[in-house]
Amino acid sequence: MHILFITSTRLGDAILSTGLLDTLLRRYPQADFTIACGPVAAGLFAHMPRRVRTIVMVKRTYDRHWFDLWRQCRGRRWDICIDLRGSITSYFLRVGRRYVMRGGRRPGRRIAHIGALLSLTPAPLPVTWTSQVERAQASRMLGTGVNWVALGPTANWDGKIWPAERFVALFNLLRAADPGLRPVVLYGPGEAEQARARPVLAQLPDALDTGGTLSVTQVAALMGQCTLFIGNDSGLMHLAAASGIPTLGLFGRSRASEYAPCGPWARAVVAPGPEGEAPMQGLHVEQVAQAALALLRQWRDRKR
């Protein structure tokens, strides 16, 4: 049995689709999977069970990337095609059952729209797939006896970014309440990401700097061993929630009603003002600290 799964070019949306993939893995234990996604999201599926191929879709003018996908998939009959991009590609392939999600933005949780494609209510929560080698590497990086707080001070555009000095003040408040905490700063590759993370690293001298060189699944393995994640609305935020750790997403210029983190211990703190238009500067350090400490208390009480 062969399943073609067409998912997002963006990392965050691709992560939200992993719960649907996990459902298909359990529902069809005899199936193999081909994933089609953008370059940024491709590494997310590196250790997915029964994945036989990842087709990396590089955007081309005049939507020619869809023709490239069709050309790479036309030689096989697909038992199921899941298309979260709302394309017409699957209609030109030999497909037994196709499920195509309508394109464009619409109100409501993105994860709910994804789950509704297979009439799944509630929608399945995102998951991560990491290797034993990556988990061992994360253990060596973090060591033992430390409660790590992962900070995600970057995002794909500046309007979504909480000021760096507030991340620093936030962590200092958290450590005052719990001296056993230590920060690890996460960010993506490239000079822009490094520039956004640099002020936080400079003011937290004992922070572990991950350097922006880790793969998506290496970061997921690292997050899985942290005590808490606090960060802007980003792919890293969704990855943290998918790893199952307490996750606090910070929202202002993006909509928590659509993209709040999804996980058993995932919460959002929203800046005051019109949804999706509120400046991140309106989100106060004390407000975020209170939400973070409350989330940690709930998580620790449940673990007892």
UniProtKB/TrEMBL annotation:
One of its GO terms (cellular component) is cytosol. It comes from the Bacteria. Keywords: Glycosyltransferase, Transferase. The keyword Transferase applies. It is an enzyme of class 2 (transferase). InterPro entries: Glyco_trans_9 (IPR002201), LPS_LOS_Heptosyltrfase (IPR051199). CDD domains: GT9_LPS_heptosyltransferase. One of its GO terms (biological process) is lipopolysaccharide core region biosynthetic process. It holds the Pfam family Glyco_transf_9. One of its GO terms (molecular function) is ADP-heptose-lipopolysaccharide heptosyltransferase activity. The keyword Plastid does not apply. Transmembrane segments: none annotated. Its EC number is 2.-.-.-. PANTHER family: TETRAACYLDISACCHARIDE 4'-KINASE-RELATED. This is Lipopolysaccharide core heptosyltransferase RfaQ. The gene is rfaQ_2.
